[in-house]
């Protein structure tokens, strides 16, 4: 059984999204995703300033097992990326909810409602 | 449900992530394969390799028969206790399997791959002819590999005085029986260590003792990155029935002398040499971020193309490495296609790390 925090929203592609108090959205990958990937060795981050539509590939997580695209869970502009992942990509394994990958300024907050809640994600991954 | 070794329940109890490997349910890792890799290079770890196939060969003509069957020459094993690495070839010189052969008191012990068990036994039986030999598969034996600079010392502490003494005496590439245990100083990691072949009924207790003594259980994920760093081939990836030892960095394991030893495949290899050996197996290092993987295309400017046979992330080097089969004229640079883009790689000798030291 993987860890699925109740206060986060989830894309079916296993990214988590958190609406912050300042209206930005923080994005990472779920516990289920990191467990399936195995040891993460590289993270390819998007450029700050780039604009993505919801569902567009916005980075790559490379593990010993495979390379996996990270998708923007909602549309928006990248306002920050987690540079610490360059030196410690394994933090995505050890702390998937504490290790953010990028932050978006969302273009339409209503898109968050289209994401799964914790119970919905749990059902989606068959747990 | 796949085949299970006697340690299946213990692997689960230790938190292993299990995967299918050639029809066997085996532990991929117990939390982090990168961590398990580091522990073997720095200290030691224990691998359950009981899925591999143990075949004992007895009889008056065991030696001459194996001299016919194997590309390396068992007559080089001048006394009980010595072991060698060899490929087993078909008439064209193509590789059927690779193995370690140990000379024992009453014959030889062959340890061959799990995935090639049925094929190997069929071949061995087909090649028996009129030779005075008996082949005994030993499925009732388990195999544990304890590998790393501290492996021999830590294992000796846990065993009886005679077994501890044997461990201290063993030189690299030697293996000897002590009671119903067979203890060898061989391995697949490029580190010092032991491979212990012993009755499967004793495996859970001994594995528990090893883990209880602080020896890290290590899975197939770490086993693969360790052997890749050590430049050791994996049958089914770096060697297979489409290739000979001469294009697989295994020319050293073919014993051409004595010239009169007509091993199966000798003429096939000679034909390849006469035609001109066109490819070689080399090491690749990706200096930037990314992971090299099997089947990626290798391009050598002005010369031609090749293919990666095994690739992964090297925890010791902190970069990606690979083994690749490329045109013979390839020098020290090439490019690899990863997800549609070309990346430069360094071409090196296919051994990256030995005894914890980076060689490239």
Automatic annotation (TrEMBL), chain A:
UniProt-listed InterPro entries: 2-oxoA_DH_lipoyl-BS, Biotin_lipoyl, GCV_H, GCV_H/Fam206, GCV_H_sub, Single_hybrid_motif
Cofactor note (record): Binds 1 lipoyl cofactor covalently.
Keywords from the named record: Lipoyl
Gene3D superfamilies per record: 2.40.50.100
Pfam families per the UniProt record, alphabetical: GCV_H
Record GO biological process: glycine decarboxylation via glycine cleavage system; protein lipoylation
Domain of life, per lineage: Bacteria
Sequence ranges assigned to domain Lipoyl-binding in this UniProt record: 24-105
Cofactors that this protein relies on: (R)-lipoate
Modified-residue entries (N6-lipoyllysine), positions: 65
Known role: The glycine cleavage system catalyzes the degradation of glycine. The H protein shuttles the methylamine group of glycine from the P protein to the T protein.
Annotated family: Belongs to the GcvH family.
Name used for this protein in its record: Glycine cleavage system H protein
Top-level taxonomy: Bacteria, Pseudomonadati, Pseudomonadota, Gammaproteobacteria, Pseudomonadales
Gene name as annotated: gcvH
UniProtKB/TrEMBL annotation, chain B:
One GO term describing the cellular component: glycine cleavage complex
Pfam families: GCV_T (PF01571), GCV_T_C (PF08669)
Keyword Ligase: no
Domain GCVT N-terminal, first and last residues per copy: 7-257
Database matches in InterPro entries: GcvT (IPR006223), GcvT/YgfZ/DmdA (IPR028896), GcvT/YgfZ_C (IPR029043), GcvT_bac (IPR022903), GcvT_C (IPR013977), GCVT_N (IPR006222), TrmE/GcvT-like (IPR027266)
Keyword Nucleotide-binding found: no
Catalytic activity: N(6)-[(R)-S(8)-aminomethyldihydrolipoyl]-L-lysyl-[protein] + (6S)-5,6,7,8-tetrahydrofolate = N(6)-[(R)-dihydrolipoyl]-L-lysyl-[protein] + (6R)-5,10-methylene-5,6,7,8-tetrahydrofolate + NH4(+)
Record key words, sorted: Aminotransferase, Transferase
Binding site for substrate: 195
GO terms for biological process, alphabetical: glycine decarboxylation via glycine cleavage system; methylation
All residue ranges annotated as the Aminomethyltransferase C-terminal domain in the record: 280-353
Enzyme Commission number(s): 2.1.2.10
Family to which this protein belongs: Belongs to the GcvT family.
Described function: The glycine cleavage system catalyzes the degradation of glycine.
Xref: HAMAP family: GcvT
Subunit comment: The glycine cleavage system is composed of four proteins: P, T, L and H.
Protein's name according to its UniProt entry: Aminomethyltransferase
Organism name: Pseudomonas alkylphenolica
Gene: gcvT
């Amino acid at each position: 059984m993987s860890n699925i925090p109740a206060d986060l929203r989830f894309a079916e592609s296993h990214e988590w999204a958190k609406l912050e108090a300042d209206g930005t959205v923080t994005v990472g990958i779920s516990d289920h995703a990191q467990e399936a990937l195995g040891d993460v060795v590289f993270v390819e981050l998007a450029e700050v300033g780039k604009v993505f539509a919801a569902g567009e590939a916005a980075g790559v997580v490379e593990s010993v097992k495979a390379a996996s695209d990270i998708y923007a869970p909602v549309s928006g502009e990248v306002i920050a990326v987690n540079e610490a992942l360059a030196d410690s990509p394994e933090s995505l394994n050890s702390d998937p909810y504490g290790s953010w990958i990028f932050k978006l300024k969302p273009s339409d907050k209503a898109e968050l409602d289209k994401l799964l809640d914790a119970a919905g994600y749990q059902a989606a991954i068959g747990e | 449900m796949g085949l299970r070794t006697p340690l299946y329940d213990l692997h689960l109890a230790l938190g292993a992530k299990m995967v299918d490997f050639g029809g066997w349910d085996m532990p991929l890792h117990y939390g982090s394969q990168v961590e398990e890799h580091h522990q073997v290079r720095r200290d030691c770890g224990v691998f359950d390799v009981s899925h591999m196939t143990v075949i004992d060969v007895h009889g008056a003509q065991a030696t001459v028969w194996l001299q016919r069957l194997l590309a390396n020459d068992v007559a080089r094993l001048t006394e009980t206790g010595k072991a060698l690495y060899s490929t087993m070839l078909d008439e064209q010189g193509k590789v059927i399997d690779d193995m370690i052969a140990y000379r024992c008191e009453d014959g030889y012990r062959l340890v061959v791959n799990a995935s090639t068990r049925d094929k190997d036994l069929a071949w061995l039986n087909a090649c028996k002819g009129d030779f005075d030999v008996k082949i005994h598969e030993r499925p009732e034996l388990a195999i544990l590999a304890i590998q790393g600079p501290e492996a021999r010392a830590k294992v000796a502490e846990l065993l009886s005085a005679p077994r501890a003494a044997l461990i201290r005496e063993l030189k690299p590439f030697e293996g000897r029986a002590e009671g119903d245990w067979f203890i060898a100083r061989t391995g697949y990691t490029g580190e010092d260590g032991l491979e212990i072949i012993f009755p499967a009924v004793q495996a859970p207790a001994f594995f528990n003792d090893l883990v209880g003594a602080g020896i890290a259980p290590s899975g197939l994920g770490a086993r693969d990155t360790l052997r890749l760093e050590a430049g050791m081939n994996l049958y089914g990836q770096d060697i297979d029935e489409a290739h000979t030892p001469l294009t697989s960095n295994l020319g050293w394991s073919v014993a051409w002398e004595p010239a009169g030893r007509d091993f199966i495949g000798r003429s096939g290899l000679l034909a390849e040499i006469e035609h001109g050996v066109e490819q070689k197996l080399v090491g690749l290092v990706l200096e930037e971020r990314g992971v090299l993987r099997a089947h990626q295309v290798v391009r050598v400017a002005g010369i031609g193309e090749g293919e990666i046979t095994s690739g992964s992330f090297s925890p010791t080097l902190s970069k990606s490495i690979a083994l690749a089969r490329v045109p013979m004229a390839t020098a020290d640079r090439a490019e690899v296609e990863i997800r549609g883009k070309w990346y430069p790689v360094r071409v090196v000798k296919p051994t990256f790390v030995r005894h914890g030291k980076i060689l490239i």
